[in-house]
Amino acid sequence: MLRYTLMRLGIFVGCLVVVWGLVYSGVVPRGLGDSNGMWIILLSLLISAPISFVVLRKERDRASMQVVQKVDKIKTNLEANRNQEDGADDAARSQGQAPQAS
Predict the structure, then answer these.
(1) In whole angstroms, how far apart are CA 64 and each of 67, 70, 71, 73, 84?
(2) What is the rounded CA–CA span in Å between residue 73 and residue 61?
(3) Residues in CB range of 6: below 8 A, 6 or more apart
């Protein structure tokens, strides 16, 4: 996941440098008044998003698989804990003891 984030950030920074160069060389128009910095950032975001979507497809799929595996592992652990508690409660009831509150 960290690798995908860093790659995405790298693409954004690369687009930021290119857009900054194009704005200051006059190829792309400057922003209005004091909004030039915001214009450069927004234009960089607009350009880097589709590039990241296409270029990082495999890395994004790999990161999503890691997230799915972690969620499945957590669900399995929760279910195991739930079953263990149910088993202990059933055993206590079958022995005629009141279950202990925890």
Answers:
(1) 5, 10, 11, 14, 30
(2) 18
(3) none
pLDDT digits (tens, 9 = 90+) for 21-65: 998 888 888 877 767 889 899 999 999 999 999 999 999 999 899
Contact indicator for 28, 35 with CB cutoff of 8 Å:
no
Largest CA distance in the chain: 85
The token pair at 79 is: 């279910």
Cβ–Cβ under 8 Å, residues 40 and 31: yes
Could you tell me which residues come within 8 angstroms of residue 2 by beta carbon, excluding any fewer than 6 positions away?
A: none
Dist. CA 2–CA 33, nearest whole Å: 37
Question: Looking at the chain, how many residues does it have?
Answer: 102
Specify the pTM: 0.65
The separation between CA 16 and the C-alpha centre of its own chain, rounded to angstroms, equals 21
